[in-house]
Amino acid sequence: MICYLVFLAFPLFWLISTAFKAPQELGSVDPSWLPQHPSLDNFRDAFDQQPLLRSALNSLIVAVTAAAISVLIAVPAAYAMVRYRSPVSKAATGWILVSQMFPFVLVIIPLFLVLKNLELINSLFGLILVYVVWNLPFALWMLQGYVRAVPRSLEEAAAIDGCSRFRTLVSVVFPLLTPGLVATVMFSFVTAWNEFFFALVLLKSPEKQTMSVILTHFLGAEGAADLGPLAAAAVLATLPSLVFFALLQRRLVSGMVSGAVKG
Q: Where primarily located (predicted)?
């Protein structure tokens, strides 16, 4: 586990170190682990070269909206698929698993044509719809496992106490799904924030491009990278995901039995 953590942490460490290095250190044939003369010049250059704040706002709008819509649709759908078993729900579960194997390249052309007919090309709303559809299969698959873990006896006990179906879902079932909801929201947010291919194809105007697309603008025509500003911009691009995870990670544990207690 320690080796695995080091394997995951080293790229982030090297990225942060590079972001604070001066141009002379970046061009050195014998690079140092830590910046010898830490500087914020790379961050200033990154903001001067590209509209990072605007692209970050676009990414935030798209990621938050897509995550919220995905969860709002997935929660009742997952509950219905688990509690009301039928050939249709079984077929839907199988289709969810199969759809996860579709590569991006397979769907991008028909998807582009559909959005073009709806006049949603070069639109943040169109990109949000794409991310919602793309995240829904995984969200449904994940939440079904959490719904199955909720004992039916709790719902029956709430019904005996006079709770309606809606009150039972809100007061008993949904609090027990809190860890699953948080995990689904985190997955949907991070997926939408980091996604590059759909954003590159569907967004044409520079003022509407997301953070992941803007990062490619630090690459020259022949693939030469402006390494310092690129590293600085990449560090800034990772911060929202880290902050989002830090805010929600404690909710992964809380709520495991809160529904039973409230019921």
A: membrane
